[in-house]
Each structure stands twice: as structure tokens, then as C-alpha cells.
Input
Amino acid sequence: MENVFSGKRAVLFDLDGVVVDSESQYTQFWQGLCGEYFPQDPELGQRIKGMTLDQIFSTYFPDKSIQESINKRVSDFEATMNYEYIQGFPSFISELHLLHFRTAVVTSSNLDKMDKLYRKHPEFRGLFDRILTSEDFTRSKPAPDCYLQAAESLAVAPADCVGIEDSFNGLKSLRAARITTIAFATTNPASAVAPYADLVASNYDELLPQLRQCEPAAE
Output
């Protein structure tokens, strides 16, 4: 198997389902909420993954009073979420630092949600060179804009990056940006995400052997 990290200079991470094990919590929340408003569309909770909250509102909930209600429910939910790291992440990010890889988080989450995560993980911001949130880009996944912007912010070409995603919209975004793609089978089955990725994994322990075979990244 070809080493996906060989010759690369940066690793770009989605957040939910990739860095923190929160995607299943979001899935349950949004499927329940969408089921209230769109009982005729049971797949909507899956389709909105990777969209910013503003895009979800403008596309599916244009009524301002409904937006206010959902905003409060989302905020209350995120305040009680469990933000545990995906298995093996601390060791993986430490290895990236030792090998001089540049790192960025590219998430459709907003700053309010990130502040809640930072309270649970005060060390989080220091783990990455850049953290891009929904406030940083106008077109969300599956458009490539957010990942192209992340690569530019790290002064690295997209071809020199590896991206890790779990949602279909996120995987399509990486593909559209022409970035080497790792799919985590944390949200969808491995067989479902495999067509969108160069490599499929369940956690970071599975990626560490490849990473440890690499030479330090070029400065």
C-alpha cells in the first residue's frame, strides 16, 4: 500500500467524527430535529452534514422564529456534548509535530461551538497551526473552498496536503480540492466512504504506522 503521508507537508482535519468523537451525537440530534419539521424526509439529517448552520437555516429553515428556536436548542446541546478525542489522536498529532507537518482544522462549526470545545480542551488551539470555522468561508462543504483556503493559510499547495474527513460532503470537498483523502469510517460504513478516499481508516492508531515511516516534512 502506498504511504499517503510520504512527501506531504500538511494534514488538514475535519472536526466532528475526525478529531472529536461527536458525530454520532450530532446525528442523533439533527435526525430528531429534522424529523420534527420534515417527517417526510428521513434522510435530511444525513444530507446536511458538512453544511454551516447559516446554510442549513437558509436552505431548510428560512423562518426567523424557527431559526431562533433551533439556535437555542443547538447551543444547549453543544454545551452538554462529550468532546472526547478519536482513538489515537493525541499520539498522531504529537507525531505530526515531531515530523514538522503543518496542521489545520477545517470545520463547518461556528465560533460559539468552538468556545465550548476549548473549555473542555484548553490545549486544543495549541495543537494546530490554523483553525478555520464557518465564519472563515462563504461556501461550505462539498465545495472545495474551505480546504483550498486552509492550504493557502499554511503556505502549502493542495497537492502537498492530506485531508481527513468522515462525511460525504467533507470527502467530496477534499476531492474537489485535489487533496489526498483519508476517510474515517466513524460516521458511515467503510464500504460507503471508500469510493471517495485514497485510504479508509477507523481511527488514528491505524494511521500511525504509515506516518512513522515518513521523513520529516519539508520546511
The chain has a mean pLDDT of 93.
